[in-house]
Amino acid sequence: MISFEENTIHKWKIEMDIMNSNPSYNLMSRNKATVHFQDVQDEYEESKRLNTVRLLVKQNETYIGLVDYCLENPSDHLPWISLFVIHSHNQGAGISAKVYRQLEQLIKQEGKDRLRLAVHKDNKMGVRFWTKLGFTKFKEVTLAGKLHDCLEKELFR
């Protein structure tokens, strides 16, 4: 069973373990393979500033992922996923798609009918994953000096 739990700074070791199970993503997003406490703390502070919801993902009683999202991005007033990371041990078995579908239900329950995210253009597996889930590209942007595809999906009730 997949469930979500609030992610707080007190759970930094769990977040760090999940992030560090994905060194290639860390290299792509942070230019370093390993995330440290300060990186987690910086993410937490940025999340507070941006008013995002930070969740840990559990399968039964095991932490398997991280999800951050905002229900109303100040730039377009739409919900955006800002982080979606599944522990490397849980990738490739359809769990990521199950987690996404459950997250989509949470967002739909908030009355939202569209969802957006940005994925690193070099993250071919990520682009393929989101496209399979029904997301389509609506623009390309440069964030922190790196190209990203901005994707969106209509959420049907």
What does the model show?
With 157 residues, the chain is an alpha+beta fold. The protein has one domain (2-154): Aminopeptidase. It is 35% helix and 33% strand. The protein has helices at residues 12-20, 23-30, 37-50, 95-109, 124-132, and strands spanning 2-6, 53-59, 62-70, 80-86, 114-120, 136-143, 146-154. The chain has a 7-stranded mixed beta sheet with strand order 1-2-3-4-5-7-6, sandwiched between helices. β6 (136-143) and β7 form a beta hairpin. The longest helix has 15 residues, at 95-109. The model has no long low-confidence stretch (mean pLDDT 94).
Topology of helices and strands:
Layout: E1 2-6, H1 12-20, H2 23-30, H3 37-50, E2 53-59, E3 62-70, E4 80-86, H4 95-109, E5 114-120, H5 124-132, E6 136-143, E7 146-154
Parallel strand pairs: 4-5
Antiparallel strand pairs: 1-2, 2-3, 3-4, 5-7, 6-7
Describe the largest sheet.
7 strands, mixed
Distance between the termini: 23 Å
Shape: globular
Specify the CATH class. Alpha Beta
The SSE string, one letter per element, is: EHHHEEEHEHEE
Counted by DSSP, the helix tally is 5
Strand content: 25-35%
- Taking pLDDT < 50 over at least 5 consecutive residues as the criterion, the unreliable ranges are none
The neighbouring-strand order within the major sheet is 1-2-3-4-5-7-6
CATH homologous superfamily label: Gcn5-related N-acetyltransferase (GNAT)
